[in-house]
UniProtKB/TrEMBL annotation:
Natural source organism: Noviherbaspirillum autotrophicum
GO molecular function: methyltransferase activity
Keywords: Methyltransferase, Transferase, Ubiquinone
Domain PhnB-like intervals: 4-133
One Pfam family here: 3-dmu-9_3-mt
Name of the protein in its database record: 3-demethylubiquinone-9 3-methyltransferase
Amino acid sequence: MLVQPYLFFDGRCEEAITFYRDTLGAEVTALIRFKDSPEPPRPGTMPPGCEDKVMHANLRIGETMFMASDGHCLGKPSFQGFSLSLTAADDAAAEKLFAGLADGGQVQMPMAKTFFSSRFGMVTDRFGVSWMVMAAQ
């Protein structure tokens, strides 16, 4: 069994992909736009003008795959009730990743030493995705 996150950026997926590529080294392994779908959209499922938006993308960050989409393209992504946990190789890498995710976002808990990691912090990025960043022990 495989469980993977699927994030809906509601019209900001391409921007998010670029941000995660630049900030986290994400690699896009697949991307299909609504206009390239082999089936036309069902009536009422996509606002006009969203043909170039991302219908589906696969991204790899380190060893983890996640999927992303523009969803209904309404421009109001909402991510609640979860955090993505990112474990960096060391303190310096954790600090760098945290700072990148915090750029344009909001720090929930600044990076600090905890009983379970030499560096740990929580941040919500500019798209509203919650991240927990820590250094590997």
